[in-house]
Amino acid sequence: MKAIRVSQFGDPDVLRLEDMPDLTAGPGEILVRLHAAGVNPVEAYVRAGKYTRLPSLPYTPGTDGAGVVEKSDDPVFTPGARVYLFGSQTGTYAEQALCAPGQVYPLPDHVTFERGAALGVPYGTASWALFNRGVVKAGETLLIHGASGGVGLAALQLAHAGGVRVLGTAGTPEGLELILKYGAAAAFNHREAGYLDQIMAATDGRGLDIILEMLANQNLGKDLGLLAPRGRVVVIGSRGPVEIDPRQLMTRDADIRGVTLFTPSPAELSAIHAQIFEGLRNHSLDPVIGETVPLAEAARAHERIMSGNARGKIVLTM
User: What is the pTM of this model?
Assistant: First the structure.
Protein backbone atom coordinates (compact mmCIF):
# COMPACT_ATOMS: atom_id res chain seq x y z
CA MET A 1 0.00 0.00 0.00
CA LYS A 2 0.98 3.64 -0.34
CA ALA A 3 1.16 5.83 2.74
CA ILE A 4 2.46 9.21 3.83
CA ARG A 5 5.35 8.83 6.26
CA VAL A 6 7.05 11.39 8.48
CA SER A 7 10.62 10.54 9.48
CA GLN A 8 11.47 13.90 11.07
CA PHE A 9 9.46 16.83 12.37
CA GLY A 10 9.55 19.94 10.23
CA ASP A 11 7.97 21.80 7.32
CA PRO A 12 5.30 20.22 5.08
CA ASP A 13 7.93 18.71 2.78
CA VAL A 14 8.69 16.08 5.46
CA LEU A 15 5.42 14.41 4.37
CA ARG A 16 6.71 11.71 1.97
CA LEU A 17 4.71 9.20 -0.03
CA GLU A 18 6.19 5.71 0.45
CA ASP A 19 5.40 2.11 -0.44
CA MET A 20 4.58 0.12 2.68
CA PRO A 21 3.64 -3.54 3.26
CA ASP A 22 -0.10 -4.21 3.25
CA LEU A 23 -1.60 -4.31 6.73
CA THR A 24 -2.95 -7.48 8.34
CA ALA A 25 -5.82 -7.58 10.83
CA GLY A 26 -5.43 -9.64 13.98
CA PRO A 27 -8.18 -10.82 16.35
CA GLY A 28 -10.47 -7.96 17.33
CA GLU A 29 -9.01 -5.58 14.74
CA ILE A 30 -10.74 -4.03 11.73
CA LEU A 31 -8.84 -3.48 8.49
CA VAL A 32 -10.27 -0.65 6.37
CA ARG A 33 -9.47 0.14 2.73
CA LEU A 34 -9.48 3.93 2.75
CA HIS A 35 -10.87 6.03 -0.09
CA ALA A 36 -10.36 9.43 1.58
CA ALA A 37 -8.66 10.97 4.63
CA GLY A 38 -9.46 14.25 6.34
CA VAL A 39 -6.76 16.84 7.05
CA ASN A 40 -6.93 18.67 10.38
CA PRO A 41 -4.87 21.60 11.72
CA VAL A 42 -3.66 19.52 14.66
CA GLU A 43 -1.87 17.21 12.20
CA ALA A 44 0.11 20.16 10.91
CA TYR A 45 1.12 21.12 14.46
CA VAL A 46 2.23 17.54 15.16
CA ARG A 47 4.13 17.30 11.87
CA ALA A 48 5.97 20.50 12.78
CA GLY A 49 6.85 19.09 16.23
CA LYS A 50 4.86 21.87 17.93
CA TYR A 51 2.21 19.92 19.79
CA THR A 52 1.93 18.67 23.35
CA ARG A 53 1.67 15.02 22.26
CA LEU A 54 4.11 13.82 19.61
CA PRO A 55 4.27 10.33 18.08
CA SER A 56 7.40 8.26 17.78
CA LEU A 57 9.16 8.61 14.43
CA PRO A 58 8.55 7.49 11.77
CA TYR A 59 4.76 7.65 11.67
CA THR A 60 1.77 7.99 9.31
CA PRO A 61 -0.38 11.05 10.13
CA GLY A 62 -4.15 11.24 10.18
CA THR A 63 -7.14 10.65 12.43
CA ASP A 64 -10.09 10.94 10.02
CA GLY A 65 -10.85 8.70 7.09
CA ALA A 66 -13.58 6.82 5.25
CA GLY A 67 -13.69 3.63 3.24
CA VAL A 68 -14.77 -0.01 3.21
CA VAL A 69 -14.03 -2.76 5.72
CA GLU A 70 -11.63 -5.27 4.15
CA LYS A 71 -11.20 -7.77 6.97
CA SER A 72 -12.85 -8.07 10.37
CA ASP A 73 -14.26 -10.56 12.86
CA ASP A 74 -16.50 -7.82 14.32
CA PRO A 75 -20.22 -8.78 14.16
CA VAL A 76 -21.26 -5.22 13.21
CA PHE A 77 -18.49 -4.02 10.88
CA THR A 78 -18.27 -6.94 8.50
CA PRO A 79 -16.25 -6.95 5.25
CA GLY A 80 -17.84 -4.62 2.70
CA ALA A 81 -19.34 -2.25 5.28
CA ARG A 82 -19.01 1.47 4.51
CA VAL A 83 -17.43 3.25 7.48
CA TYR A 84 -15.81 6.45 8.66
CA LEU A 85 -12.96 6.56 11.16
CA PHE A 86 -12.25 8.61 14.20
CA GLY A 87 -8.75 7.42 14.92
CA SER A 88 -6.81 4.32 13.95
CA GLN A 89 -3.78 2.36 15.10
CA THR A 90 -1.78 3.12 11.97
CA GLY A 91 -2.76 6.59 10.65
CA THR A 92 -5.21 7.52 7.91
CA TYR A 93 -2.97 9.24 5.32
CA ALA A 94 -2.72 5.83 3.68
CA GLU A 95 -4.57 3.35 1.48
CA GLN A 96 -5.25 1.09 4.47
CA ALA A 97 -5.80 1.63 8.19
CA LEU A 98 -5.93 -0.83 11.06
CA CYS A 99 -8.54 0.07 13.68
CA ALA A 100 -9.99 -0.96 17.02
CA PRO A 101 -13.80 -1.32 17.07
CA GLY A 102 -14.25 1.98 18.94
CA GLN A 103 -12.57 3.87 16.10
CA VAL A 104 -15.00 2.76 13.36
CA TYR A 105 -18.49 4.15 12.72
CA PRO A 106 -21.16 3.40 10.09
CA LEU A 107 -21.35 5.66 7.04
CA PRO A 108 -24.82 6.00 5.47
CA ASP A 109 -25.04 4.99 1.82
CA HIS A 110 -25.88 8.50 0.60
CA VAL A 111 -22.73 10.04 2.16
CA THR A 112 -19.65 10.02 -0.10
CA PHE A 113 -16.31 8.81 1.24
CA GLU A 114 -14.92 12.35 0.89
CA ARG A 115 -17.69 13.69 3.12
CA GLY A 116 -17.25 10.75 5.48
CA ALA A 117 -13.60 11.70 5.90
CA ALA A 118 -14.76 15.14 7.06
CA LEU A 119 -16.70 13.82 10.06
CA GLY A 120 -14.52 12.54 12.90
CA VAL A 121 -12.49 15.43 14.28
CA PRO A 122 -14.60 18.37 12.98
CA TYR A 123 -18.03 17.07 13.97
CA GLY A 124 -16.76 15.35 17.11
CA THR A 125 -15.05 18.54 18.25
CA ALA A 126 -18.06 20.68 17.38
CA SER A 127 -20.49 18.41 19.24
CA TRP A 128 -18.30 18.19 22.35
CA ALA A 129 -17.67 21.95 22.34
CA LEU A 130 -21.32 22.89 21.91
CA PHE A 131 -23.27 20.43 24.02
CA ASN A 132 -20.81 19.14 26.63
CA ARG A 133 -18.39 22.01 27.28
CA GLY A 134 -20.56 24.93 26.16
CA VAL A 135 -23.89 23.45 27.31
CA VAL A 136 -25.67 25.40 24.58
CA LYS A 137 -29.48 25.42 24.65
CA ALA A 138 -32.19 26.01 22.09
CA GLY A 139 -33.02 29.71 21.86
CA GLU A 140 -29.58 30.91 22.90
CA THR A 141 -27.40 33.08 20.63
CA LEU A 142 -24.10 31.59 19.52
CA LEU A 143 -21.17 33.21 17.72
CA ILE A 144 -18.83 30.92 15.79
CA HIS A 145 -15.64 32.92 15.36
CA GLY A 146 -14.18 31.31 12.23
CA ALA A 147 -17.32 29.61 10.97
CA SER A 148 -16.21 28.80 7.41
CA GLY A 149 -13.64 26.11 8.32
CA GLY A 150 -14.29 22.42 8.91
CA VAL A 151 -15.08 22.64 12.64
CA GLY A 152 -16.91 25.94 12.23
CA LEU A 153 -19.30 24.60 9.61
CA ALA A 154 -19.85 21.43 11.62
CA ALA A 155 -20.75 23.51 14.69
CA LEU A 156 -23.01 25.73 12.60
CA GLN A 157 -24.99 22.76 11.31
CA LEU A 158 -25.24 21.05 14.72
CA ALA A 159 -26.31 24.25 16.50
CA HIS A 160 -28.81 25.23 13.81
CA ALA A 161 -30.38 21.75 13.99
CA GLY A 162 -30.63 22.19 17.77
CA GLY A 163 -32.65 25.41 17.61
CA VAL A 164 -29.76 27.75 18.43
CA ARG A 165 -29.55 31.20 16.79
CA VAL A 166 -26.15 31.25 15.12
CA LEU A 167 -23.99 34.19 14.10
CA GLY A 168 -20.73 33.55 12.28
CA THR A 169 -17.55 35.26 11.15
CA ALA A 170 -15.34 34.61 8.14
CA GLY A 171 -12.58 36.49 6.35
CA THR A 172 -13.72 36.37 2.72
CA PRO A 173 -16.95 37.06 0.81
CA GLU A 174 -17.06 33.39 -0.21
CA GLY A 175 -16.77 32.33 3.42
CA LEU A 176 -19.55 34.68 4.48
CA GLU A 177 -21.81 33.35 1.73
CA LEU A 178 -21.06 29.78 2.77
CA ILE A 179 -22.01 30.22 6.42
CA LEU A 180 -25.24 31.99 5.51
CA LYS A 181 -26.07 29.09 3.19
CA TYR A 182 -25.72 26.61 6.05
CA GLY A 183 -28.00 28.39 8.50
CA ALA A 184 -26.29 31.39 10.11
CA ALA A 185 -28.72 34.18 10.97
CA ALA A 186 -26.02 36.75 10.19
CA ALA A 187 -22.41 36.76 9.00
CA PHE A 188 -19.61 39.25 9.70
CA ASN A 189 -16.20 39.80 8.10
CA HIS A 190 -13.67 39.63 10.94
CA ARG A 191 -11.15 41.51 8.82
CA GLU A 192 -13.32 44.64 8.64
CA ALA A 193 -13.14 47.48 11.14
CA GLY A 194 -16.21 47.71 13.35
CA TYR A 195 -17.35 44.11 12.99
CA LEU A 196 -17.50 43.66 16.77
CA ASP A 197 -20.01 46.53 17.02
CA GLN A 198 -22.05 44.90 14.27
CA ILE A 199 -22.14 41.63 16.21
CA MET A 200 -23.28 43.36 19.38
CA ALA A 201 -25.97 45.21 17.44
CA ALA A 202 -27.23 41.87 16.09
CA THR A 203 -27.93 40.83 19.71
CA ASP A 204 -29.79 44.12 20.41
CA GLY A 205 -26.98 45.00 22.82
CA ARG A 206 -27.56 42.00 25.12
CA GLY A 207 -24.46 40.08 24.07
CA LEU A 208 -23.78 36.46 23.21
CA ASP A 209 -24.63 33.44 25.29
CA ILE A 210 -21.78 31.40 23.86
CA ILE A 211 -18.79 31.93 21.56
CA LEU A 212 -16.87 29.15 19.83
CA GLU A 213 -13.33 30.46 19.33
CA MET A 214 -11.00 28.98 16.73
CA LEU A 215 -8.10 31.45 17.15
CA ALA A 216 -8.00 32.47 20.79
CA ASN A 217 -4.57 34.10 20.65
CA GLN A 218 -6.03 36.78 18.38
CA ASN A 219 -9.61 37.05 19.54
CA LEU A 220 -10.12 35.96 23.15
CA GLY A 221 -9.58 39.37 24.74
CA LYS A 222 -12.17 40.92 22.41
CA ASP A 223 -14.59 38.00 22.80
CA LEU A 224 -15.05 38.68 26.49
CA GLY A 225 -16.56 42.10 25.78
CA LEU A 226 -19.24 40.50 23.61
CA LEU A 227 -20.59 38.11 26.23
CA ALA A 228 -24.03 38.30 27.80
CA PRO A 229 -24.39 37.67 31.56
CA ARG A 230 -23.27 34.10 32.34
CA GLY A 231 -21.89 33.77 28.81
CA ARG A 232 -19.27 31.20 27.86
CA VAL A 233 -16.29 31.28 25.52
CA VAL A 234 -15.34 27.79 24.38
CA VAL A 235 -11.77 27.71 23.06
CA ILE A 236 -11.27 25.23 20.24
CA GLY A 237 -8.06 26.60 18.72
CA SER A 238 -5.14 28.88 19.58
CA ARG A 239 -1.69 29.44 18.12
CA GLY A 240 -0.08 31.15 21.10
CA PRO A 241 -0.63 33.07 24.36
CA VAL A 242 -3.04 35.96 24.82
CA GLU A 243 -3.60 38.65 27.44
CA ILE A 244 -7.12 39.17 28.83
CA ASP A 245 -8.80 41.38 31.42
CA PRO A 246 -10.38 39.06 34.04
CA ARG A 247 -12.77 41.84 35.07
CA GLN A 248 -14.62 41.21 31.81
CA LEU A 249 -15.40 37.75 33.17
CA MET A 250 -16.13 38.85 36.72
CA THR A 251 -18.71 41.50 35.82
CA ARG A 252 -20.62 38.96 33.69
CA ASP A 253 -20.24 35.78 35.78
CA ALA A 254 -18.76 34.45 32.56
CA ASP A 255 -16.56 31.44 31.78
CA ILE A 256 -13.74 30.43 29.47
CA ARG A 257 -13.73 26.70 28.74
CA GLY A 258 -11.20 24.65 26.79
CA VAL A 259 -11.89 21.75 24.45
CA THR A 260 -9.98 18.60 23.59
CA LEU A 261 -11.20 15.28 22.25
CA PHE A 262 -8.71 13.44 24.47
CA THR A 263 -11.02 13.63 27.51
CA PRO A 264 -14.45 12.20 26.48
CA SER A 265 -15.13 8.72 27.83
CA PRO A 266 -15.97 5.84 25.47
CA ALA A 267 -19.65 6.28 26.36
CA GLU A 268 -19.46 10.01 25.63
CA LEU A 269 -17.74 9.38 22.30
CA SER A 270 -20.40 6.83 21.43
CA ALA A 271 -23.12 9.43 22.12
CA ILE A 272 -21.33 12.02 19.99
CA HIS A 273 -21.12 9.69 17.01
CA ALA A 274 -24.71 8.52 17.46
CA GLN A 275 -25.71 12.19 17.17
CA ILE A 276 -23.58 12.56 14.04
CA PHE A 277 -25.13 9.45 12.45
CA GLU A 278 -28.64 10.68 13.17
CA GLY A 279 -27.80 14.08 11.66
CA LEU A 280 -26.50 12.38 8.52
CA ARG A 281 -29.55 10.13 8.38
CA ASN A 282 -32.03 13.02 8.61
CA HIS A 283 -29.89 15.28 6.36
CA SER A 284 -29.46 18.03 8.97
CA LEU A 285 -25.69 17.45 8.74
CA ASP A 286 -23.94 17.86 5.40
CA PRO A 287 -20.10 17.93 5.53
CA VAL A 288 -18.70 20.66 3.29
CA ILE A 289 -15.63 19.74 1.22
CA GLY A 290 -13.57 22.78 0.38
CA GLU A 291 -10.85 20.98 -1.56
CA THR A 292 -9.77 17.47 -2.47
CA VAL A 293 -6.04 16.78 -2.83
CA PRO A 294 -4.32 13.56 -4.02
CA LEU A 295 -2.59 11.60 -1.25
CA ALA A 296 0.79 12.23 -2.88
CA GLU A 297 0.27 15.98 -2.41
CA ALA A 298 -0.32 15.89 1.35
CA ALA A 299 2.30 18.62 1.81
CA ARG A 300 0.18 21.01 -0.26
CA ALA A 301 -2.85 20.13 1.87
CA HIS A 302 -0.91 21.08 5.02
CA GLU A 303 0.13 24.38 3.49
CA ARG A 304 -3.50 25.14 2.60
CA ILE A 305 -4.94 24.27 5.98
CA MET A 306 -2.52 26.58 7.78
CA SER A 307 -3.13 29.47 5.38
CA GLY A 308 -6.28 30.53 7.23
CA ASN A 309 -8.29 30.66 4.01
CA ALA A 310 -9.73 27.14 3.96
CA ARG A 311 -13.49 26.95 3.33
CA GLY A 312 -14.86 23.63 4.48
CA LYS A 313 -12.76 20.51 4.86
CA ILE A 314 -9.59 19.59 3.00
CA VAL A 315 -9.62 15.91 2.10
CA LEU A 316 -6.94 13.59 0.69
CA THR A 317 -8.09 11.10 -1.93
CA MET A 318 -6.48 7.73 -2.60
Answer: 0.94
